[in-house]
Write a structure and sequence with these properties.
mainly alpha; 612 residues; ion channel; 2 domains; 17 helices; 0% strand; disordered N terminus
Length: 612
C-alpha cells in the first residue's frame, strides 16, 4: 500500500524524509539499535549454526552415496576389462542401464514438480549453464545419439550371438541423452531451495552416473587404441614386446559383413564426442548440486556477447593451426605402422608441428598475463561454484599430461639407445608442461576478472563528489553493496552514476578541488601503466585475439589424441624403460584427462573471449 493511502510510514522512510528536509549535507546515520524482539534483527549465531548442520549432513550423505556408486561401478568396469571370472559385459551394461533408469525417474519427478510450481519465483545462478555451454552439450549429444544408432545396428548384425543387453543399453542411453539435454536446458541454472535433501541425492546420482558412462566410453575407446598400438609396435622394431590382442569381437558372422565392418569402425571414431558429452553433463550437474540451498543476491550479471570485430589476426592464426593439425593427423595415421622408416618420419613430423604450436601458444599466454600485470585491477573473489569448478578442472586435468610428459623426459634421460625421433620428444614434453602452466594462469586470471565495461564503470564511480557551492540533498541511509544511485537521488547530467553505492560527500569544494576531481574522473590509475598502443579499446582487441588464437589451438590439440594420433603409444621408448604394461597403464589413465583438458580449456577460453 502507498503511504498516501493511510498506511503507516516505515522508520526507514521517515528517517529518509526527515533528512531530506534538512539543509545540512547528507550523512550515513548510526546503525539501528537491534532488539531481541525486533523482526529485522538477525538470528543468534548459535541458532544459525544449528540450522546449517542438517544441510551439511545432507551434502555429506549424498556425496558419500555418489562416491560409493562410482567406486562400485569402476570396480565392475575393471573386472570386465581384465576378464575377471564370472563378470561379463552384460553385468556391466545391466548396472549402467539401471543407473540411467533411476536418473530418468528422478528427472521426470523434478521436471513435473517444477512445472506444477512454475508460477513461483525461483532463484537462478547466472554463471551456470551458459548458452554456449548448452549448445556445445547439445551438439555432443546429437553425435552420442548417432553413436547409439550405430550400436543398435551392430547388435542387429550380430544378434545371433549377442545378449539382449547389447541392444537394450544403446536404446536406454539414447533416451537418457535426450531427457538429460532437455533437463539441462531448462534447469541447469536452478538454485534448489525445497526438498533439498532428496534433490541432493538425485543430482549427485546423476553426476556419478554420467561419470560411469564416461569411464565406460574411455575404456572401450582405450581398448580399441591399444589393439591398434600393439599391431603397429612390430613395425618400429620392438619385436620383444608381447602383442596379445584384447579382442571382444562376437564369435559369429554378421549378415552384411561390409556394413558391419563399417559400423564397427565408425563407432570408435564417434567415441571422443560421447566422452566429451558425458563429462560436460557431469560438470553441469555438479554445479547444480553445489547450488542446492545456496544463498545468492539478486544482482544479475551482464549477458556475454560474441563479438567478432578486431580478431582477424587471432582467428587467422588459429584457423591456420587447425588446418595444419588436420593435415598432420591424416598423414600421421596413414604413415604410422606402415614401415619403420615411415613411422619414424611420422613421429618427427608430429613433434615438429607440436613444438611450433606449443611455443606460439606459450608466447600468447605470456603476453596476455603481461597485459594483466600491467593493468592493475582487483579480482572478483566472490563465491561462484561454476568458476571454482572451472579452475579446479583446469589444474586437475592438466596433471594427466604432466604425468605423461615427465615419464617421457625420464625415459629419454635413462634410455640406453636413443633413436633420432626421441630427441624431438624431449623439447615437446617440456613445452607441454610449460604451455599448460602458462595457459592455466591466463585462463584463471581472466575468468576472475569482471567484464571490461563493468569494471571500468566501477573504477570510475568509486568516489562521487558533490559540489555546486551548496550541497545537494541526498538520502540519509547508506547504500549497500550492489545498490544503484538512481534509487537514491535523481542523477544530473554532470553527475556520474554510482555503481556500488559508494558515495562520498564533500563540503565547500574550491576551484582546485574541482580541477583535481575533474582530472580524477577523466583518467583512471591502472591504464597509466599500459603502453600507448594498449590504451583504451586496443587492449581489449589484443586480449580478444589472444583468447581466439588459444581457443582454436586447444581445439587443434584436442583432435590428434582423440582420433588416434598418440605418439606416447607409438615411439616405444617409454615402454622399453618402464615396461610395456606399466607404461600402458599410465597412458590409459592419464590420456583421458589430457584429452578433456584441451576441450575444457577451449570452453573456458571461449567464455574469456565473450567477457573481454
Amino acid at each position: 500500500m502507498l503511504e498516501g493511502l493511510g498506511s503507516p510510514a516505515s522508520p526507514r522512510a521517515a528517517a529518509s524524509s526527515s533528512v531530506e528536509g534538512s539543509s545540512g549535507p547528507a550523512a550515513c546515520p548510526p546503525p539501528w539499535p537491534s532488539s531481541p524482539t525486533s523482526p529485522e534483527s538477525p538470528a543468534p549465531r548459535r541458532g544459525g549454526v544449528r540450522a546449517s548442520v542438517p544441510q551439511k549432513l545432507a551434502e555429506a550423505l549424498s556425496s558419500q552415496y555418489g562416491l560409493n556408486v562410482f567406486v562400485a561401478g569402476l570396480l565392475l568396469l575393471l573386472a570386465w576389462a581384465v576378464h575377471a571370472a564370472g563378470v561379463g559385459k552384460s553385468d556391466l551394461l545391466c548396472l549402467l542401464t539401471a543407473l540411467m533408469l533411476l536418473q530418468l525417474l528422478w528427472m521426470l519427478w523434478y521436471v513435473g514438480r517444477s512445472s506444477a510450481h512454475r508460477r513461483l519465483f525461483r532463484l537462478k545462478d547466472t554463471h551456470a549453464g551458459a548458452g554456449w555451454l548448452r549448445g556445445s552439450i547439445t551438439l555432443f549429444a546429437v553425435i552420442t545419439i548417432i553413436l547409439g544408432c550405430l550400436k543398435i545396428g551392430y547388435f542387429i548384425g550380430f544378434s545371433e550371438c549377442l545378449p539382449a543387453t547389447e541392444g537394450v543399453f544403446p536404446v536406454t542411453h539414447a533416451v537418457h541423452t535426450l531427457s538429460q539435454v532437455y533437463f539441462l536446458w531448462g534447469h541447469a541454472k536452478d538454485i534448489i531451495q525445497s526438498f533439498k535433501t532428496l534433490e541432493r541425492f538425485g543430482v549427485i546420482h546423476s553426476v556419478f552416473t554420467n561419470l560411469l558412462l564416461w569411464a565406460n566410453g574411455v575404456l572401450n575407446e582405450s581398448k580399441h587404441q591399444l589393439n591398434e598400438h600393439k599391431e603397429r609396435l612390430i613395425t618400429l622394431g620392438f619385436g620383444n614386446i608381447t602383442t596379445v590382442l584384447d579382442d571382444h569381437t562376437p564369435q559369429c558372422n554378421c549378415t552384411p559383413p561390409t556394413l558391419c565392418t563399417a559400423i564397427s569402425h565408425g563407432i570408435y571414431y564417434l567415441y571422443p564426442f560421447n566422452i566429451e558429452y558425458q563429462i560436460l553433463a557431469s560438470t553441469m550437474l555438479y554445479v547444480l548440486w553445489k547450488n542446492i540451498g545456496r544463498k545468492v543476491d539478486s544482482h544479475q550479471h551482464p549477458k556475454m556477447q560474441i563479438k567478432s570485430d578486431g580478431v582477424v589476426v587471432g582467428a587467422a592464426l588459429g584457423l591456420t593451426a587447425l588446418a595444419a593439425t588436420i593435415g598432420v593427423v591424416v598423414v600421421y595415421l596413414i604413415h604410422i605402422g606402415r614401415s619403420k622408416t615411415k613411422s619414424e618420419s611420422a613421429l618427427i613430423m608430429f613433434y615438429l608441428y607440436a613444438i611450433t604450436l606449443l611455443m606460439l601458444m606459450g608466447a600468447a599466454g605470456l603476453a596476455g598475463i603481461r597485459i594483466y600485470r600491467m593493468d592493475e585491477k582487483s579480482l572478483d573473489e566472490s563465491k561462484n561454484p561454476a568458476r571454482k569448478l572451472d579452475s579446479d578442472l583446469l589444474v586437475g586435468t592438466a596433471s594427466g599430461s604432466w604425468l605423461i610428459s615427465w615419464g617421457s623426459i625420464l625415459a629419454i634421460l635413462c634410455a640406453e639407445n636413443h633413436p633420432s625421433y626421441t630427441w624431438y620428444n624431449l623439447p615437446y614434453s617440456i613445452l607441454v608442461i610449460l604451455e599448460k602452466y602458462v595457459q592455466n594462469l591466463f585462463i584463471i586470471e581472466s575468468i576472475h576478472r569482471e567484464p571490461e565495461k563493468l569494471s571500468e564503470d566501477i573504477r570510475t564511480l568509486r568516489v562521487v563528489t558533490v559540489c555546486n557551492g551548496n550541497t545537494m540533498p541526498l538520502a540519509s541511509f547508506c547504500l549497500k553493496s550492489g545498490g544503484v544511485a538512481e534509487d537514491v537521488a535523481p542523477r544530473s547530467r554532470d553527475t556520474p552514476p554510482a555503481a556500488n553505492g559508494n558515495v562520498h560527500v564533500r563540503e565547500g569544494c574550491g576551484k582546485e578541488d574541482e580541477k583535481r576531481e575533474e582530472s580524477s574522473w577523466g583518467e583512471s590509475p591502472s591504464p597509466a601503466h599500459l603502453p600507448c598502443f594498449l590504451q583504451g579499446n586496443a587492449k581489449r582487441k589484443v586480449l580478444r585475439n589472444i583468447a581466439a588464437f588459444l581457443f582454436l589451438c586447444n581445439i587443434s590439440l584436442w583432435i590428434p589424441p582423440a582420433f588416434g594420433c598418440r605418439p606416447e603409444y607409438d615411439n616405444g621408448l617409454e615402454e622399453i624403460v618402464f615396461g610395456f604394461e606399466p607404461w600402458i597403464i599410465v597412458v590409459n589413465l592419464a590420456m583421458p584427462f589430457s584429452i578433456f583438458y584441451r576441450m575444457h580449456a577451449a570452453a573456458s577460453l571461449f567464455e574469456v573471449y565473450c567477457k573481454i
